[in-house]
Design goal:
The structure is a single chain. The protein is mainly beta. Helix content is about 10%, strand content about 50%. It contains five helices and 22 strands. A twelve-stranded antiparallel β-barrel has the order 1-4-5-6-7-8-9-10-11-12-13-14. Strands 15-16-17-20 form a four-stranded antiparallel beta sheet, with no helix packed on it. It has a four-stranded antiparallel beta sheet with strand order 19-18-21-22, with no helix packed on it. The radius of gyration is 26 Å and the shape is globular. The N and C termini lie far apart (about 75 Å).
């Protein structure tokens, strides 16, 4: 009997050890590294409709959807992985075992993080933490220079279960909480350019300067983000965010929550389907070989030294009269930055050029409108 008890005790210890090992390192490079070409469906839900219990991380049985589906698309930029959704884009770099947040962009502003934040570290286990400072420079409406500085602490702080809307239960869910304390400083862009010439010439701040400047203008914001990672899901199943003003008195905190169903994530391939090609394969000498309108043809030349796009185009066939051609240079969200136009005459070749000098680094789309048709070429500003 004593031997039987000892065997049972040893078995129990072994099972407990296996369970602890299973819980650890749930966020890993192989399982959770962002993948190009992924389409991640996310729904905004009412934060107050999510219930929490001592032994349950979150109960989603009665979640209330308050917005339409927001599809996040992962694609390669010039030298980064870009996540694009309705709100804008985030840019990431993988450096060693860390995924870094290196830039954000919306319709009104963009920020490049010269001192980036560690977004994820591989592996990340229960109890692990990351902390540091971040600093970014950018523009708001091309009128204000922005410097965003702050500190962050990220910790895998809880482990448990999620109850799904259909009452299924996901076990071994790891919660990662990030607290950011952020200060945004703004100055007239013209003044900054007059002093430094370019934004890249502005010197970086050290950690001591960041600490000194934080809160100096009373616009310090605290953001607490919680991401819930479930086994078999590359992206968080649930993400919540709470934002408040530091020293804001009785001002209410703003909350948001987003749900990405584990069932929709099952369709995401486990392999990196596009990692073998980080650049746009039509970056140079693109042509209209597959153009359904046979009367119009073009090729695209990109002069990276002169920062100029040149469209060589011709119109042929039975086209009568001059054909108007429009070039529109937009970002991924469709915001128009530059445009030019001209006319084509049958049998003649024309060259239309458009400068992209001064545009922020990132991905753009050149739309070519001719003969009642529209064509597009994606390219990157380096």
């Amino acid at each position: 009997m004593a031997n039987l008890i000892n065997h049972k005790s040893i078995l129990l210890l072994v099972l407990m050890t296996l369970d602890v090992c299973f819980c650890k390192a749930q966020v890993t490079h192989g399982q959770n590294m962002y993948q190009v070409n992924d389409l991640v469906e996310r729904q905004q839900v009412n934060r107050t409709s999510i219930r929490e219990y001592p032994d349950i991380l979150a109960d989603l049985q009665n979640i209330e959807v308050i917005g339409g589906n927001n599809v996040e698309n992962m694609e390669w930029g010039t030298d980064s992985l870009i996540a694009i959704d309705n709100a804008g884009m985030n840019k990431y770099w993988l450096k060693g075992d860390s995924l870094l947040l290196v830039g954000t962009e919306s319709r009104l502003m963009h920020i490049d993080y010269t001192h980036p934040e560690v977004w994820l570290r591989f592996p990340l286990s229960l109890g692990d933490s990351i902390k540091g400072f971040f600093e970014g420079k950018g523009q708001y409406c091309e009128r204000l220079f922005l410097r965003k500085i702050g500190r962050y602490t990220t910790k895998a702080d809880a482990w448990g279960a999620l109850i799904m809307e259909n009452s299924d239960t996901l076990h071994n869910v790891l919660r990662i909480q990030t607290e950011r304390i952020t200060t945004t400083l703004a100055q007239p862009l013209d003044n900054i350019l007059a002093t430094y010439g370019t934004l890249d010439s502005i010197p970086l701040l050290g950690n001591d300067s960041i600490i000194r400047l934080m809160g100096s203008d009373g616009r310090t914001v605290r953001t607490i983000t919680q991401r819930y990672y479930a086994p078999g899901c590359r992206y968080p199943v649930l993400e919540t965010c709470e934002t408040s003003i530091v020293g804001g008195g009785n001002s209410a905190a703003q909350t948001a929550a987003f749900y990405s169903s584990p069932y929709s994530q099952e369709s995401l391939a486990s392999a990196n389907r596009g990692a073998s090609s980080k650049s746009n394969d039509r970056q140079n000498n693109a042509s209209s070989a597959d153009n359904p309108d046979k009367s119009f043809s073009y090729s695209l030349d990109i002069d990276t030294s002169g920062k100029t796009l040149t469209v060589n185009c011709t119109v042929s066939g039975t086209t009568e009269g001059p054909v108007p051609v429009n070039l529109l240079l937009c970002n991924q969200q469709g915001i128009l930055y530059r445009q030019t136009s001209g006319y084509l005459h049958q049998g003649n070749s024309e060259r239309l050029s458009l400068s992209y000098a001064g545009l922020h680094y990132g991905s753009y789309v050149l739309y070519i409108e001719a003969g009642g048709q529209q064509y597009s070429e994606k390219f990157n500003v380096n």
